[in-house]
Amino acid sequence: MSNPVKVNPDLQKEREKCTFNVIELTNVIDGGPQKTEERKKREDMVFKEGIHIDEVPSDYLSHKEKYELAVKKACLLFKMMRRLQEEENAGMENYMALLGGTLGTAILGDGSPLTLHYVMFIPTLMGQGTVEQQAYWISRAFNLNIIGTYAQTELGHGTFVRGLETTATYDVSTKEFLLHSPTLTAYKWWPGGLAHTANYCVVMAQLYTQGECHGIHPFIVQLRDEETHMPLPGIKVGEIGAKLGMNGTNNGFLGFDHVRIPREHMLMKNSKVLEDGTYVKATSSKLTYGTMMFVRVMLVQDMCNYMAKAVTIATRYSAVRRQSQLRPDEPEPQILDYVTQQHKLLIGTASVHAFRLCASWLWDMYNNVTAELETGDLERLPELHALSCCLKAIATSDAAACVERCRLACGGHGYMLASNLPLTYGLVTAACTYEGENTVMLLQTARYLVKAWHQSGAALPPTVAYLALARDTRLTHSQPWRNEVDAIVDGFQRIAAGKIALCVAQIEKREKSGMTYEDAWNMTSVQLTAASEAHCRAFILSSFQKETEKLVKTVSAPLRLVLLQLVELYAVYWALECVGDLLRFSSISERDIEGLQNWYEDLLVKLRPNAVGLVDSFDIRDEILHSALGAYDGRAYERLMEEAMKSPLNAEPVNQSFHKYLKPFMQGKL
Ligand SMILES: CCCCCCCCCCCCCCCCCCCCCC(=O)SCCNC(=O)CCNC(=O)[C@H](O)C(C)(C)COP(=O)(O)OP(=O)(O)OC[C@H]1O[C@@H](n2cnc3c(N)ncnc32)[C@H](O)[C@@H]1OP(=O)(O)O
Ligand SMILES: Cc1cc2nc3c(=O)[nH]c(=O)nc-3n(C[C@H](O)[C@H](O)[C@H](O)COP(=O)(O)OP(=O)(O)OC[C@H]3O[C@@H](n4cnc5c(N)ncnc54)[C@H](O)[C@@H]3O)c2cc1C
C-alpha cells in the first residue's frame, strides 16, 4: 500500500491507534503473503497500462459514448490478457484472478459488454458441450475470435424458465434446427453484450423433435457476420435501452425468423438429439441450469468486493468528516465517533468477512459437487442448489442494503457520483434481480427445506442437519439462553426450524380445508421466504463462526482478538435485528435482550479504534475505489472540488442557455 506524502491528520491518527497489523490481515484475506504479492503485481500491471484512466469522466458521456468506451476498455484489457497468456501461459484461473476480485470491479466500471462472454458463454460451453464441441468452440471463444453471450430471458419470461417461448425444431431432412420466435414476448431480452457486441450466443430454447417438446435446451447460434458484424438473415437484434445502472453492459434483444443451425450446434453433453431425430434424455433435466448455478456461486464473492469498496469509502470519509457537537465546548467530532455511525459501518466490515468465508465454502462445495456430477452422482445437487439460491439472495440483498447505508452515512457527498457509491449501488441492486430474482430464489430454498423437514433425521444432508435436532419440540425452549455466539447460532437454527415447522403445518391445514397444494403454498409463501432467510442467516452465522475459529489458530494474538470481535458483532447485530423471532422461537428473555444490546454497544466501543485499520486491510487501491471520499490520503474536500471542476459546465463561465433562454425569459422577451 503506497502511503502518499500528505495524509489527512485525522486519518493518520486512526492508523496510528490500530491495534493489529493491517498487512497481516490483508494476507489472511488474500490467502497468504504470496497471494497478496501476486495480487499487487497484477494490479500494478493493469494500472500501468492506464486502461482505467478516462479523459472525460464517463458520467458526462452520452449513452452511445459510454458503450464505445466500454468496448475500447474491454479490448485493451483483453489485449493485455492475451499477452499475459502468451508470456506466462496463464489459463482461465488467471482471468478469474484478474477480474474476479475488487480489481475486476474497477476495470469493468459500469459493467462491460464482454462480461457475459466470460461469465456465462464460456462456462456454458464448458458445462454443456460434449468433448468435441468444447474442442471446437472453447479455444475460439477463449481467444476472443468469437464473442458470445447467454440468451435465456425473454420479454415475456425471466423467472419461469420452463415458460420460454423460443423454439428450436429439428428438421430431420436437413439435419438442422430451426430457431424461431413465435411471438413478441418470445424475443430474448436482457442478455449482456447481445445488442452490438456478441456475434454468437447460447440460446435457451424449447426443443421440438419428432413432433414432441422436450423442454429448454442450449443451442449455439451465430448472430452476426464475422467480418462485417452485420446481423445475419432472420436475426433481429438491438439494444434494450438505458437502465438504472450497468449501462456499459450492452444488454440486448433478439428475435429469430426461422433461422437454421446445424444439429451439432445443440450443446449435447447432457441431452442429445440423434441424426434421425431421436431424443436422448439427460440424467437430470436440471443439468441444463448449471451455468445459472455457477454464476450464483460466483456472485456471493462478487458482492463481498462491492461491500468492501463501499465500507472502505464510507469509513475513511467518516474519519475525515467532522460535524455537529458531541460534548459542549469541544471541537466538532469526527462523525465516526457517533455510535450510530459505527452501527452503520462496522456491520458492513463484519459482513465482508462473513460473506467472504461463506463464498469460499460455497465455491469448494460447488467444485466438489460438480466433480461428483461428472461421475453421474447427483446426490448433493439439491443441497447445493438450495444453498446457492438462498446465499445468492441474501448476499445480494445485504450488499445492496450495505452500499445504500454507506451512501447515506456519507450525507450529501455520498449522493455525488464522484463518491462512487451511486454507481456501486446500481451494480449491486441489479444482482438482486438477475441470475434468479431474490424472492424466487428464497422460495426455491424453501421448497428444499420443506422436503427436508419431512425426511427422517438420519438422512438429512449437513447444511440442514440441525432440523433434526430442532424438530424435537421438547428441546425448543428447554435450554436457558446464554449471551454467547454459540447460543445465537443455535437461536437462528431454532428460528429457521420453527418457521419451517409452521409453514409445513400451515400448508397441511390449508390443504385439509380444501386448498390445492399449490394454492396452500402460495398462501404460505410470505412465511416460506422468511423461513428460507432464517435458514440462510443460520448458515452464514455458523459458517462465519466455525471458519473464523479455524482461521484464528494461525494468526497473531491482536488480530485474533479483532477477528473474534467481528464474529461477535455480526452475530449480535443479527440477533438484535431478529429479536422478535428469537423471543418467539428460543428461550431468550427481556433481560437477555438488554444484555445483548449492551454487548453490542461494548463491541462498537472495542472495534471503533480499528475501524480504519479494518478497511485498510481490504487493501483496495485508490484506482479501484474510484472515489473522491474514500481515497487512502483522506483528501476528500480537495478531491470533491477537483471532480467538480471536471464538470463540462465549468469549462465556461457563462453557458449559452443564458443568452438563448434565461436572459430573454427574465426580460419578458421569451
Ligand atoms: C471485460 C469483462 C470480462 C469479464 C470477466 C469476468 C470474470 C470473473 C468475474 C465474475 C464476477 C461475477 C460477476 C457476475 C456478473 C453477472 C452479470 C449478469 C448476469 C446475469 C445473467 C442472467 O440473469 S441469466 C438468466 C438467469 N435466469 C434465472 O436465473 C432464472 C431463474 N429461474 C430458474 O432458475 C428456474 O426457473 C427456477 C425458478 C429454479 C424454477 O425452475 P423449474 O420450474 O424448472 O423448477 P421447479 O421449481 O419446478 O423445481 C423442479 C426441481 O428442480 C430443482 N431445481 C431447480 N433449479 C435447479 C438447479 N439450478 N439445479 C438443481 N436443481 C434445480 C428444484 O429444486 C426442484 O427439485 P425437486 O423437484 O426435487 O423439489
Ligand atoms: C442487469 C440485468 C442483466 C441481465 N442479464 C441477463 C443475461 O445476460 N441473460 C439473460 O438471459 N437474462 C438476463 N437478465 C434477466 C434476469 O435474469 C431476469 O430479469 C430475472 O431472472 C428475473 O426475471 P423477470 O425479469 O422475468 O422477473 P419476474 O419473474 O417477472 O419478476 C417480477 C416479480 O414477480 C415475482 N415472481 C415471479 N415469479 C414468482 C414466483 N414463482 N413466486 C413468487 N413471486 C414470483 C418476483 O418475485 C418479482 O417480484 C438480466 C437482468 C438484469 C436486471
Automatic annotation (TrEMBL):
Domain Acyl-coenzyme A oxidase N-terminal, which positions? 21-147
Principal subcellular localization: other
Q: Which Pfam families match?
A: ACOX, ACOX_C_alpha1, Acyl-CoA_dh_M, Acyl-CoA_ox_N
Q: A cellular component term (GO) from this record?
A: peroxisome
Gene Ontology biological process terms from the UniProt entry = fatty acid beta-oxidation using acyl-CoA oxidase; lipid homeostasis
Report the superkingdom from the record: Eukaryota
* Intracellular or extracellular location(s): Peroxisome
Q: Which cofactor does it need?
A: FAD
Question: Where's the Acyl-CoA oxidase/dehydrogenase middle domain?
Answer: 150-259
Q: Where is the Acyl-CoA oxidase C-terminal domain?
A: 486-667
Tell me which InterPro entries the record gives. ACOX_C_alpha1, Acyl-CoA_ox_N, Acyl-CoA_Oxase/DH_mid-dom, Acyl-CoA_oxidase, Acyl-CoA_oxidase_C
Cite the entry's keywords alphabetically: FAD, Fatty acid metabolism, Flavoprotein, Lipid metabolism, Oxidoreductase, Peroxisome
Tell me the pathway: Lipid metabolism; peroxisomal fatty acid beta-oxidation
- Annotated Acyl-CoA oxidase C-alpha1 domain residues: 289-450
Molecular function per GO: acyl-CoA oxidase activity; FAD binding; fatty acid binding
* PANTHER family hit by this protein: ELECTRON TRANSPORT OXIDOREDUCTASE (PTHR10909), PEROXISOMAL ACYL-COENZYME A OXIDASE 1 (PTHR10909:SF250)
Concerning its family, UniProt says:
Belongs to the acyl-CoA oxidase family.
Protein name, entry field: Acyl-coenzyme A oxidase
Which species is the source of this protein? Answer: Parnassius apollo
